[in-house]
């Protein structure tokens, strides 16, 4: 499944590709056990095959032909056998400015939008609040053959809900096991879940918030309320650490994406998606008709 179209840029990067020895799905996988986020480097470039920022656009773009091919296979399987076809869910969590939007634009943006089901979870609507918190999540799970993207997720129900005490402790405390059971069921019905925590430092968040105030083109990204969440940084880090630790299962593990460097973060999520799609080992669906007979018919048509 080599890149279909070769360009000088791509062949240059495929030379450095060889330097990546271990898959990111191993390198970035959160080990089981207690989680101390402060000990995980937000500036790491683990597994990055290039030298730095300058080769990131080419290295990321070099993934596109293969990602497109893999995604099309997934989509084709969904079309030909909706009962059996798998799906993939890329779940993005992270503090404000960690780059969920950037990942969606730069990494997920490389695949055909027709094969993507993107859901951004905001504060629940009145209707959503009338249901169990997993109701809106279940409805957004990707269909067979599709790549779902969650911009925020069920984890908000043990993050902002916990930090802002939107429900009693006893209620959110029961949610970790519930989320695990929910994810297990989704995996059993054919969804590969790639949970990405975009890990950004306190200092980097400040720099990004400041940058949003520096130019009128970025004002729209600035939300004065983000400072309230920033003021609760330690509580959020603790809530994240617990969610990561308690929901780090074999069937739906967490990946920690060092996100202080945007170029690494975008490359890393694209690479993780690529590795998981390869892992599905998808072939093209067989024809459900007599190819030779149809060729004859087309020739005569
Ligand atoms: P943004 O992603 O910047 O558009 O912001 C979405 C906002 O919705 C964030 O402040 C989230 O914390 C909030 N949010 C998402 N899910 C929930 C939830 N289940 N309960 C309360 N707030 C939520
Ligand atoms: Mg925001």
List keywords for this structure.
301 residues; alpha/beta; Rossmann fold; five-stranded parallel β-sheet; 15 helices; 46% helix; 11% strand; globular; disordered N terminus; binds adenosine monophosphate; binds magnesium ion
Describe the structure.
With 301 residues, the protein is α/β, with parallel strands linked by helices. The chain has one domain: P-loop containing nucleotide triphosphate hydrolases (Rossmann fold, 3-Layer(aba) Sandwich). 46% of the residues lie in helices and 11% in strands. It contains 15 helices and five strands. A five-stranded parallel sheet has the order 2-3-1-4-5, with helices on both faces. Helix 4 packs across helix 14. The N terminus is likely disordered.
């Amino acid at each position: 499944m080599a890149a279909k179209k070769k360009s000088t840029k791509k062949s240059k990067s495929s030379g450095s590709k060889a330097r990546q020895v271990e898959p990111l799905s191993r390198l970035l996988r959160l080990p089981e056990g207690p989680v101390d986020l402060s000990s995980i480097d937000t500036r790491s470039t683990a597994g990055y095959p290039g030298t730095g920022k300058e080769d990131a656009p080419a290295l990321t773009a070099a993934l596109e032909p293969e990602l497109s091919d893999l995604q099309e296979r997934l989509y084709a399987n969904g079309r030909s056998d909706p009962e059996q076809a798998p799906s993939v869910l890329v779940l993005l969590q992270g503090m404000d400015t960690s780059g969920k939007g950037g990942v969606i634009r730069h990494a997920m943006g490389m695949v055909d939008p027709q094969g993507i089901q993107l859901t951004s979870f905001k504060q629940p609507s009145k209707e959503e609040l009338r249901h169990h918190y997993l109701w809106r999540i279940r409805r957004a799970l990707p269909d067979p053959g599709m790549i779902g993207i969650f911009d925020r997720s069920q984890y908000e129900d043990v993050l902002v809900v916990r930090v802002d005490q939107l429900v009693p402790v006893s209620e959110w405390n029961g949610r970790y096991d519930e989320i695990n059971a929910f994810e297990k069921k989704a995996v059993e019905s054919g969804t590969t879940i790639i949970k990405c925590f975009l890990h950004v430092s306190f200092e980097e968040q400040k720099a990004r918030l400041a940058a949003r105030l520096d130019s009128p083109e970025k004002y729209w990204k600035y939300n004065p309320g983000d400072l309230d969440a920033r003021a609760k940084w330690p509580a959020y880090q603790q809530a994240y650490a617990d969610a990561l630790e308690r929901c780090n299962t074999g069937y739906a593990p967490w990946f920690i994406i060092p996100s202080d460097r945007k170029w690494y973060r975008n490359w890393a999520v694209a690479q993780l998606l690529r590795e998981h799609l390869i892992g599905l080992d998808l072939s093209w669906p067989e024809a459900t008709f007599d190819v030779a007979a149809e060729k004859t018919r087309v020739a005569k048509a």
